[in-house]
Write a structure and sequence with these properties.
With 113 residues, this protein is of the alpha+beta class. It has three helices and six strands. The chain is elongated, with a radius of gyration of 25 Å.
């Protein structure tokens, strides 16, 4: 008697449920299309990163915030975050002009605890 493949831990039998014919032959069951979440924001952050050599700029998909990390030598990491690129640019200019940016400031913005 031939035995069908089973998937462990699935209901349907002691060893699991029977695998479908597509799964048994190694073909994917459904075509999956990749999604590019917040593509505009990610692209905008990448463009700003290219023109700001003193900063590493990124966009957080989970937080939906823009981040800038100072790349010049500082005693502690200087991380800025904002909901918009305009706000982030303002914080960057402010940090560059603030003597504290070269000392003990660790974070400016509202998203990080």
């Amino acid at each position: 008697m031939a035995h069908l493949k089973t998937s462990p831990g699935q209901p349907g039998s002691e060893a699991g449920r029977h695998a479908s014919a597509r799964q048994a032959t190694g073909r994917p069951s459904d075509e999956v299309h990749r999604r590019y979440w917040d593509a505009e924001q990610r692209l905008a952050a990448a463009r700003l990163d290219e023109v700001e050599p003193a900063w590493a700029i990124s966009y957080g998909l989970g937080s939906r915030r823009f981040y800038a990390i100072a790349t010049w030598p500082v005693p502690h990491p200087l991380i800025l975050d904002a909901t918009s690129l305009d706000e982030l640019r303002e914080l960057m200019r402010e940090a560059e002009m603030t003597p504290a940016a070269y000392g003990h400031v660790r974070h400016i913005g509202g998203g990080l605890a």
